[in-house]
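Q: Give me a backbone?
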Amino acid sequence: MDDETTKSTSSLAEAGDAVSLEAMIARAARSGKGAPPVERWNPAFCGDLDMEIKADGTWFYMGTPIGRPALVQLFSSVLRKDEDGKTYLVTPVEKVGIRVEDAPFLAVEMVVTGAGEEQVLTFRTNVGDVVEAGPEHELRFVDQPETGGLKPYLHVRGRLEALVARPVMYDLVEAGEEIEIDGQLMFAIRSRGSVFPVMPIAELDRLSQ
C-alpha cells in the first residue's frame, strides 16, 4: 500500500457509521488485484467494533441490520479469523474485532455435477463466494447433542467457514452414499476426490427409525 493510500485510509475503530467503514474498506480492497490478501497483512489491533454476524448470516452494525448486500460483501472480503479464535476486519494498517455467533458465512446453494468418484459439490455463500468442496475446502459435521442432529460446515478461506443452510443440508444428504472407511460402513459425501464421513450407517439407521 503506497503512502498516499495509507494517509487516506480512515480508522476502522473510529468510524462513526457504516458509510465510513464502506469507504475505508473499499480503499483497502482496491489496493491489490482480486481478493484482498488479508492473510499477509499484519496491522496493529485497534480494539473491537460493534459489529456482529448472526447465525442466520445477517450482519448487524451498532445493533442495526446492514441491509445493503453489496456492503456486506465488501466487509466480508476483509474478514480474517486468527489463531486466537477471534474474527477481525483487517486492512493493511489496522484490525478490529467483531462478533460472530456461529460461522461468518452461510452456504445458501449447492450444485452437484458428476457422479461417484467424479462427483463435485459446488457451493455459493450468502456473500458471493463460490467454493468447490474437496481437498482444499473440506466439509465437516458437528454433532448437536441437544437435538441429535448434525451441523455441516464448509471451509471457505483462511480459517473462515460457512454453515450449510438447512435447505442445502437436505440436498447435501441426497448427494451422500454408503462408503467403507477404515473397515467401517459410513454415510459419507464425495467431492473432487475427497471423502467426508458424516456418521456410521448404523447410527443413521437408528436415527431414521
Notes: The helical segments are 3-8, 18-29, 69-76, 166-174, 201-208. The CA atoms of residues 73 and 127 lie 5 Å apart.
